[in-house]
Amino acid sequence: MIDYSLQTILKAYAKRLTNLSAKNKSLLLLNLPNEQFIDLHELDFLHNQPSFMLIEQLIAQKNAISLCDTLDPRNVKVNEVSKRLKKISRTEKFIEEERGAKDLYVGYPMVKGKLMDGTVVRCPLLFFPVTLTQKAQRLSLNSSTDTGSGIKWHLQRREEPVTFNRSFLLAYSHFNEIKIFDNFLEYTFEDFSKTSLEFRTQLYELLKVSPLNVNFNQELFTNQLQYFEKSTKADLEQMEKNGELKLYPQAVLGIFPQAGSFLVPDYDFLIEESQNNITGLFREGEAQWLHPSLSMIQPTKIREEKLLTPLAIDASQEEIIREVKIGKSLVVQGPPGTGKSQLICNLVADFTARGKSVLVVSQKRAALDVVYERLRQIGMEQFVGSVHDFKNDRKALYSQILHQVEQIDAYKKHNYSLDSIFLERSFDQESRRIDKIVEELDSFKTALFDTSLCGVSVKELYLTSQPDAPYVDLSNFYQDYRFDQLDDFLTRFQKYCQYTRLFRHDSIGKNFWNKRKRFNSLTFSDVKHWQELFSKTFKATQTVFQELESLLESKIQYDDLQNLIQERDELKSISAILTSNSYFDALKYRKQQKHSLRALEFSQLFEQIKAIFGVEGIEITLDSSALKPFLHKLIEALDAKSNAIGGMVWSLFSKQKKDIQDVVVANGLTMSADDLRRLQMRIQNRIQLEEWWTEFGHLFWVKSQGNISSERPIWLGKGFRWFERHFEMMHKAIQTDMVWQETHLSLLVDISSFDYESVKNLLEDIHASLEGYAETHVYSQPYLSESQLEMLANIKASEASDIIAYLDEHFDLMLEADEIHRSFSSREMDLISLLEKEANLEDSPIELFTNNLKLAWIEAIEQRYPILRGASTLKLQQLEEDLQKSIEQKQQLSKEILQLKLREKTYQSIEVNRLQNVTTYRDLKHQVSKKRKIWSIRKLIAELSDEVFNLIPCWLASPETVSAIFPLTTHNLAISEKNSTGYHPVMFDLVIFDEASQCYAEQGIPSIFRGKQTVIAGDSKQLQPSDLYRIRFDDEDEDIPALEVDSFLDLGCQFLPQMQLRGHYRSRSLDLIDFSNQHFYQNSLQLLPRFEDMNDSDSSIEYIQVSEGIWNNHCNAVEADVILTLVKELRANTPDKSIGIVTFNYRQQVYIQDLLEQHLHAQEKLTKNGQEPIFVKNIENVQGDERDIIIFSVGYAPDATGRFTMNFGTLNMSGGENRLNVAVTRARERVYVITSIAPEQLKVDDATHEGPKLLKHYLEYARRVSEGLYSPQPHISKNYWAEWLLKEQLSKKVVSFVKELPFADLTVKSSQQYQGVVLTDDDLFYDARSVKESFAYLPLELQRKGWSFTRYYSRQLWKKVIP
Question: Which parts form a coiled-coil structure per UniProt (predicted)?
């Protein structure tokens, strides 16, 4: 089972480091390769002095030590040594340019022997830092002593101190299992004597008390060097004994990379810390080196005010910044020229402005230099620590720190002079304005492309609908129909319309059967049944109409018949109510008098009569006129009888007694007081009843209405039963009238004009006729529609025959039509009915329906998203202008706030003592300003990290430098505490790794363990790591995924999410990047060339065929001569343009480099005004470089015999195509391809790898571009049909609108000259990462590049407002 533990993987990475392997030249130097080493004893007396004098001068710290002439025509030895020094010097400079490291040392003395485990060692003990230079020296008058050119090689002493060979000490510690402490590892020999003998003596004394057991023999005290003999590892293993080490007076000048040795302690620390780790190197999907608190990232929307970007950005860069801001660690794929450095600088600015620390790591010095230069442009240079070589850069760094300390008061004064509150308020206001505008534009874009509402986007509706076509209001139906679910309905509707057209001719048969009920599951055998049914129904209809019209003596309609059928029960109930003539008379009287009293009101009147009659009833003997006088007399009698005397007097003497007594007797009462009171009540009831009769008596029908006003009312003497009988009669009249009024017959017959018998007979006859028809009607209803039944009332017998014949002839057709009809729901039929009513379905029914459906959906969507209407008004234009203005303003404010915050942090935490003296920075200032016993950078940061990071929050360094100067400690220690080594832990908030594809995984890991969050930037389509004179140990047996990749970028890709930069900014024209974009990046790069360059007729690639090139000793001298001539012409004609030369192998590079040095004057090697120098590199080391003009020397050619070998060096290797990709993307403005072979000569179809095939393709491409045959390809619209694209319609309408350039929807072109571009709301807009890209970044970039542009929206075309 494979061990995936963190410890296992870290040990494997540690093993890969050459510092502890025998392949490391700093440990085992068996011979001296010409390009890297030379034995100093070979310089013995080349300059009239013994070679040991060179060591003496080094010990004496002499600044410049003369070695020999660069050229001596009379001394072959001098020339040979000079050539070797030249190669070493080139290697030294190359490494410094590539890595920023200065790795040239004189190694002395040499240690030889074996470590305790048998590891063979032969290496320097001490390193004297030097650099090789050429200096002109005044010639002596003595020609016998000065025979050279006057230019001599010198060793220049570097600022860094003499040190132990750290690789040797670490190997000694590791293999001998002896602890060597940092103070010994970092011993600097500053206190040693400058005389060679005393120096050696002090070294001897130091070794005696050191943990090293090395034999310091007497030969070292002789002032003479020995030759460094060539040896083999086998010889040493046989000759040397385990554990025995000896020193020899040998000295070697050469390349001894030392920075990598600082990685080893980091791995020792990490391995020790990983012993408790049981989860493996990586968590699920995320690297273990990420800080634990970042293991779970919650999605968060980053407000604009949280983004501080003082440099211009594009959408892909902003997208990445936002992901980093929420705490994610990422891999950023950055193809050539896509703004990795811009992205990194914006991340640095954002984090440092918020008080965080950032570490930018890269093995490429050029990459760090570019970052530094960008940061300098935004005023950060004093807050950035750039350390390429931690020993040689210490002086400059300490000067920078000292300057920062001395500037604190000035920083504070500067900040106080600014209105910082206003500055930050302005920044917040612009940020909020951007957020608000973006929110509105986002809502527009969302609404424009949203398909969730109706199945398609409103954009498509705009482009496929006609607002001025015939209109049908579908506002009640549109929501039932989504366009992605419409096909079934449209298919059925289309068929329906076809059948409808067949039935539209004028004939009684068609008209009748068009109104039919649908035939359900019928066959042709059912036709007979239908014909019989029709005949029977027709006859019954004709009969009932004749009978009714005869009875009613008027013409009736089918509606009348239907109403009469429905009210048969009502007519029957009327007959049942009118059982007597008196009832009918009451009804007639009511209708004649037009009484409107309802039954309820009549019941209330009856209750009043019942109350009047009550217990006592009424008095019936008196006339109506005598009632009130008599009542008066009666009341007086009762008053008199109220006392005994009064009653006696009234009885004896009253004249009214007899009158009262007569009435009393007539009513069957006595003269007692009680009976008199009863008589009083009866009279009062009689008076009340007569008043009631006066008011309501007219409602009653009586035979003698004249009695109503006589002295003796008609009801007098008949009692309550008379009223009861008449109320019943009137109630029947009301009941009958109410039923009658509700009947349709009441509209046809005036009942008051009939007598009782006539009405009875009429009702019975009508009922009989209706009953006869109703049976047929009920039977026919399931088969015939109401419309058909209505037609039967109006057709003739001859027409009935036509109807029967039509059924017989077209029955099958009607069956099919009914099957279609049956498939529609009631809502669908309502819609179809509306369409039939509002428009003619014969012409284009589908188009009519779909167009109006689109218009209805457009209206609904625009009501939901009013912002859509802004496309055809000024709304969107104003938002776009405001957004661009705010973004530019915010960018400027970001720069000012960045500088303010950086200055502020330097004095924010200043402390004072009780005497008010500042104590912060006191120790730091002392350490960086002293002249002796200067602390190393590592110790300074370990002891004073807080203060250092307040002054310099951003650091740029190589991976080795990071390990050398930033102590690695456990993450769980507090910043203010110290660990067991006495060091403060250093933790960066963000570690950014640039050009990670060129860094081995094991070299990158220690750096990111120093960060809470990581961004790994590189390009997997560019160069993989190269050793660059360092040999790395590979264990082929490792089968762990994390160990199967070489580059740090590929390692990150295994475990971190990836994002890609898209905008390309290096190449000024499309043809320079198009090849790479097509073959390596799947056309994902977005280049916006300058407008002025697009109309330039000259091609950006010139293909130059060299006809006489010969491949000899891996060189092509003819091509080199052509290149020399071309360089001279370019420097004469375009002196302001920088030049780079790229070869396909190392030998051709060296040959051209020598040729240029021979023929160009020293001052000509640099462009004017100190611009970029000409470089000559091969495809292995040109990554990261760029120039205005790039010259390719393909080199490959037939040999002198005419034989051409298909051997393309590293291009033949796996991944060789990446080298080609790097090479062809270095030019900003122009490429010259110098080749001795034509593409047709390359027979590479059977090549194993892609490199040779792509070389052939590139040569074909370059020749085609050079011949003017290149044409840019427009953006390819994928997954969109043409009708969806506005540009398709515009290009058809406007001749000058063409699809040609990839960065715009349409190009405006006239007379083969570009005039501008057109932007639409098509796929480029849809695919944009954000609305800021569409409305700000792209328009601003177009303006910067000189392009005029016009923006059109689909709604404008729909509204016909596009000019």
Answer: 876-903
* Better pLDDT: 591 or 1211: 1211
Helix, strand, or coil here: 592?
helix
Residue 318's CATH number: 3.40.50.300
**Lowest-confidence range among 15-24, 413-422, 619-628, 1288-1297?**
15-24
Domain end point (choices 1061, 1084, 1113): 1061
Quick one: DSSP state of residue 1047?
B
Which residue segment(s) compose the domain that 599 sits in?
568-742
In this structure, of 52-61, 692-701, 1177-1186, the range with the lowest mean pLDDT score is 692-701
Same domain for 7 and 48, yes or no, is no
CA angle 334, 371, 1303 (to 5 degrees): 40
173 and 203 fall within a common domain: yes
Contact (Cβ atoms closer than 8 angstroms) between residue 270 and residue 13: no
**Range picked from 167-171, 289-293, 1093-1097 for highest mean pLDDT:** 167-171
The tokens 């209001």 sit on which residue? 473
Q: Which residues pair with 102 in a beta bridge?
A: none
Rounded Cα–Cα distance for residues 316 and 1345 (Å) = 19
Q: Taking the model in full, what pTM does it have?
A: 0.76
Higher pLDDT, 573 or 1330: 1330
Tell me how crowded residue 781 is: count the other CB atoms within 10 A of its CB: 13
Question: Do 136 and 239 reside in the same domain of the chain?
Answer: yes
**CA distances from residue 1290 to 445, 456, 465, 1352 in whole angstroms, order as listed:** 20, 21, 16, 9
**Contact indicator for 1167, 1134 with CB cutoff of 8 Å:** no
| Apex 798 CA angle, 793 and 804, nearest 5 | 85
Length of the chain: 1363
Query: Which pLDDT value is given to residue 1040?
Result: 57
To which H or E segment does residue 403 belong? helix 394-406
d(CA 579, CA 575): 7
Structural domain contains residue 1290: yes
DSSP conformational letter for 595: -
- Angle between helices 1146-1159 and 1117-1133 in degrees, nearest 10: 50
**Mean predicted confidence (pLDDT) in 392-416:** 92
Burial environment of residue 913 by CB neighbours within 10 A (0 to 12, 13 to 18, 19 or more): exposed
Q: Token digits for 215? A: 């034999």
Confidence class for position 979, pLDDT limits 50, 70, 90: very low
CB atoms within 10 A of CB 528: 10
Same domain flag for 240 and 191: yes
Q: Is residue 878 part of a domain?
A: no
Are 322 and 360 members of one domain?
A: yes
Q: Which residue among 1032, 1061, 1090 closes a domain?
A: 1061
Task: List residues bridging with 991 in a β-sheet.
Answer: 359, 1014
Number of domains in the chain: 6
pLDDT for position 1201: 85
CA distances from 736 to 17, 232, 769 (A): 117, 137, 22
60 located within any domain: yes
The whole-angstrom separation of Cα 1302 and Cα 1338 is 13
At residue 44, φ and ψ (nearest 5 deg) are: -60, 115
DSSP state for residue 918 in the 8-state scheme: B
Instruction: Report CA-CA distances (Å) from 78 to 32, 86, 142, 224, 1252.
Output: 18, 12, 19, 20, 42
Pair 1120, 1256 in one domain: yes
Q: How does residue 1163 score in pLDDT terms, banded at 50, 70 and 90?
A: very low
Measure the CA–CA gap between 1354 and 1286, rounded to whole angstroms.
Answer: 6
Q: What pLDDT score does 720 carry?
A: 80
